[in-house]
């Protein structure tokens, strides 16, 4: 359940609220103490990230390019795998 909550920003923006509602209403099949901890977490995520006026309403990173920066040179692109694997 925690993985699903952390994966919400990977969804398209219009799917985040319904997915959050589905996850939070699914409940946790464990002990009551764990249920309480999940409840606190869901209330925090809802109040801080989904309904906050401080943060942008669009948490989605769906479809955003995560490749090389546009200012990298061809040489930098060639040596990057060597640097990354060390």
The biggest sheet, with number of strands, parallel, antiparallel or mixed sense and barrel status, is: none
- Overall 3D form: elongated
- Rg: 19 Å
The helix fraction, in percent, is 55-70%
Q: Provide the succession of SSEs.
A: HHHH
Strand content: under 5%
Number of domains: 1
- Unreliable residue stretches: none
Mean pLDDT: 76
Question: How many individual β-strands?
Answer: 0
Give the N-to-C terminal Cα separation: 34 Å
Question: What is this entry, summarized?
Answer:
By secondary structure, this protein is mainly α. The protein has helices spanning 2-6, 13-26, 32-50, 74-84.
Topology record:
Elements: H1 2-6, H2 13-26, H3 32-50, H4 74-84
Q: Your description of this structure?
A:
- By secondary structure, the protein is mainly alpha-helical.
- It has helices at 2-6, 13-26, 32-50, 74-84.
- It has one domain (2-84).
- The longest helix is centred in the middle third of the chain and has 19 residues, at 32-50.
- The protein is elongated.
- The model has no long low-confidence stretch (mean pLDDT 76).
